[in-house]
């Protein structure tokens, strides 16, 4: 694994940690049950932020997939034809694991 790959992995772990913390805050906001104007405002803002969070997680997942593809392409270039077979087999393994076949 290259230094760049390590930095990408570190960035992903940091991002996941922040998402987890944000999800915990959203759970706290969802537990607000009062009818005071402040409570209603918290609920409305939390719903808005939940939608924003969902969009950001989708974008991050796309970026993660792109980073993995770039890593695989780099591996193919540096390992020649045998690397191609390994990368193709690995991609098929991931597909089968995801679909549990």
Could you characterize the architecture of this molecule?
The protein has helices at 3-30, 37-99. It has 101 residues and is mostly helical. It is elongated and about 65 Å long. The chain starts with a helix and ends with a helix.
- What's the story with the biggest beta sheet? none
Topology, number of strands: 0
Intertermini distance = 29 Å
Give me the strand/helix succession. HH
Mean pLDDT over the residues: 82
Helicity level = over 70%
Shape assignment:
elongated
Counting helices, strands and paired strands, the structural category is mainly alpha
Count of DSSP helices? 2
Low-confidence stretches: none
Radius of gyration: 20 Å
Beta strand %: under 5%
Summarize this structure as a short list of keywords or feature phrases:
mainly alpha; 101 residues; single chain; 2 helices; elongated
């Amino acid at each position: 694994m290259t230094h760049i790959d390590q930095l990408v992995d570190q960035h992903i772990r940091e991002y996941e940690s922040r998402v987890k913390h944000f999800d915990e805050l959203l759970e706290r906001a969802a537990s607000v049950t009062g009818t005071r104007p402040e409570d209603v405002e918290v609920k409305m803002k939390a719903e808005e932020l939940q939608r924003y969070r969902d969009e950001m997680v989708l974008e991050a997942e796309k970026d993660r997939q792109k980073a993995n593809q770039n890593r695989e392409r780099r591996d193919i270039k540096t390992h020649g034809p045998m690397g191609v077979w390994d990368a193709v087999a690995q991609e098929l393994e991931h597909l089968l694991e995801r679909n549990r076949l």
